[in-house]
Amino acid sequence: MNWSLKMGKRYMPTVLIFAFLLLAWQLVVSVFGVREYILPSPASVLNAITNSEIPWGSHMLVTATEVVGGFLLAAVVGVLLGTAIAWSDTAARALMPFLVFVNTLPKVAIAPLILLWFGYGLVPNLLIGALIGFFSVVINTAAGLSQIDQDMLDLGRVFNAPKWRVFVKIRIPNAYPYILSALKITATSAVVGAILGEFVASQAGLGYVIITSQSTMNTPVAFAAIAFVSIIGLSLFGIVSLLARVLAPWAVDGGR
Questions:
Q1: Does 131 map to a domain?
Q2: What's the pTM value of the predicted model, to 2 decimals?
Q3: What is the span of the domain harbouring residue 250?
Q4: Over the stretch 94-107, which tens digit does the pLDDT of each residue have?
Q5: What does the UniProt keyword field contain (predicted)?
Q6: DSSP collapsed to 3 states, the chain
């Protein structure tokens, strides 16, 4: 009971905000008579979700696979590159300019090239999602591994700990909050990348549904697809937040 009350107090403001926005949305559409193809009411969107002939489950599965795959790829590559940068000054000097260059590339412009190189399907959309989200993981990993209390490093030297042991016992635990914060950003970035890839060219996924519904001015279906995209992003963000509470509880809400 205490746990449920704590969760209720924690998330009740968010629930109230969403409820207020939905109510305001419904009132605006009803009072001003906004046409459905411009702004559908929440009731119309709900009807599109429940009564539509669109196979929402299969489209959600495609997009969720792209999002999760892009997120995991960005996380693994980002942590490895960040570790290399923190481990070696030579690697840092060699990698950082190249990574900054890659990160500054306009993703909208290179998305068609990725589709050209890798064809249509899950892989290019997964890569676009990873490309958008990996840089923050690299930077935060390197920062977490480098910004150590000097007294901790001195303690390691006193005990003649080798470099790899200092990394495992001191630097990596210190980097947990940094990495997990970056992963929260990457969780949302992966969603953007997957949808961007589906916008450019795809035959399945929620981005594909949004594009096709807009071409037929079926705005309630487009809003329903956007709602499902948000659910995927919020779910992945929630999983990362839960992981942060498990691995680095001292860094989440002051350890509460």
A1: yes
A2: 0.84
A3: 57-255
A4: 888 888 888 888 87
A5: Cell membrane, Membrane, Transmembrane, Transmembrane helix, Transport
A6: CHHHHHHHHHHHHHHHHHHHHHHHHHHHHHHHCCCCCCCCCHHHHHHHHHHCCCCHHHHHHHHHHHHHHHHHHHHHHHHHHHHHHHHCHHHHHHHHHHHHHHHHCCHHHHHHHHHHHHCCCHHHHHHHHHHHHHHHHHHHHHHHHHCCCHHHHHHHHHCCCCHHHHHHHHHHHHHHHHHHHHHHHHHHHHHHHHHHHHHHCCCCCHHHHHHHHHHCCCHHHHHHHHHHHHHHHHHHHHHHHHHHHHHCHHHCHHHC
